[in-house]
Amino acid sequence: MPAVFRPDEEPRLRELFDAMERPVELVVALGPEEAPVQGAGDFDFGAETVRIVEELASLSERVTRRVEEKPDGVTMFPAVLVLPAGEDRGLRFYGTPYGYEVASLVGAVLEAGRLVPSLAPESLERLAALDRDLAIDVFVTPT
Amino acid sequence: MLLAYRMALASPRVTAAAIEAGEFPRLAEELDVRAVPRIVVNGVPQWDGSVREPVFVERILAPSFE
To answer: Lowest-pLDDT range, A35-39, A50-54, A108-112, B30-34?
Structure first.
């Protein structure tokens, strides 16, 4: 399996993770997987997700990880739950964050590591006034 | 994707998930995913493509999603 990060990327990522204002926990949720697209062969999406998350967490003590079988509230597998300071704030990555999509997971960790989200003050104000629940799903592909 | 995560971190009423379309083909088909990123709010497809923060926040919070 190829390395998840290029050797020249690692020092910068270490620096960014080490500088996070709060620690971030990654939970890999494993369970029954949907039959993937044709051509995927016997690729083990769950094992690959564990490998990616382990490699990411190995870069800094500020990032920890654990693996859970079918945790409560997760119905699609594999999934990665991103928990700022161990708290579930509803950040998820469903599927295997390989290729280009590993950047989404890295971005989620760095954002979760901030005490104040990096949004414009106007956006934060509008969100503070939100009076209903919103579940945002973003469909992505690794290529 | 990061904007969605930022919004979830900014409000306890918002959750944000990236979904790898190729690994969940049934759901992707159900939501008619042809282009990515496809943005879905409360199970209803909204738009495709990346937009800047003010537009993203405006669209997500638009009253029509109530």
So the answer is: A35-39
pLDDT of A40 higher than 80: no
What CATH homologous superfamily does A10-128 map to? Glutaredoxin (3.40.30.10)
Provide the token pair at A39. 């051509």
Query: Most B CBs within 10 Å: which of A21, A136, A140, as the mutation test of the B interface?
Result: A136
Q: How many CB pairs under 8 A join A and B?
A: 183
Report ipTM (2 d.p.): 0.95
To probe the interface with B, which of A137, A141, A143 has the most B CB atoms within 10 Å?
Answer: A137
Element (H, E) at A28: strand A24-30
Q: Does the CB of B46 have a partner CB in chain A at under 8 Å?
A: no
**CATH numbers and ranges of domains, chain B:** 2-65 (3.40.30.10)
Distances (CA, A) of A47 to A52, A67, B63: 9, 11, 41
pTM for the full model?
0.94
